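Sample pair:
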Amino acid sequence: MEENQIAKTRGVKRWGGIALLAGGLLAGGLLVGTPSANAATTTSATVASYSSTSTATKISASVDKKVRAAALAKYPGATIQKVVYAGGIYEVHLTTKAGRHVIVEVNRHYTVIGSKSGR
């Protein structure tokens, strides 16, 4: 009788271990399938690009949008690399449709006040 009881206990332990393993695999699969935040999307929504110089200041998303719009009004179809705020002026670094690199200067009223060749 004792041998029969030991065999039953081993069977229960074996199936219990298999069930535990299956549950762990299922939970792990659910975690892997869970969508996660992307740093590129969250960062770009809150702060615009800025240069590495100590005089540059972070720009809010709403200001960044207005500054970019002013630069694109002057150079339609251009590709903007970055926007920098330093010394009271926004500098928009862009590449025109013709492939020319330009730095567009925009004032605090979102008016283009100048541009120069740049890289």
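DSSP finds three helices and four strands in the chain.
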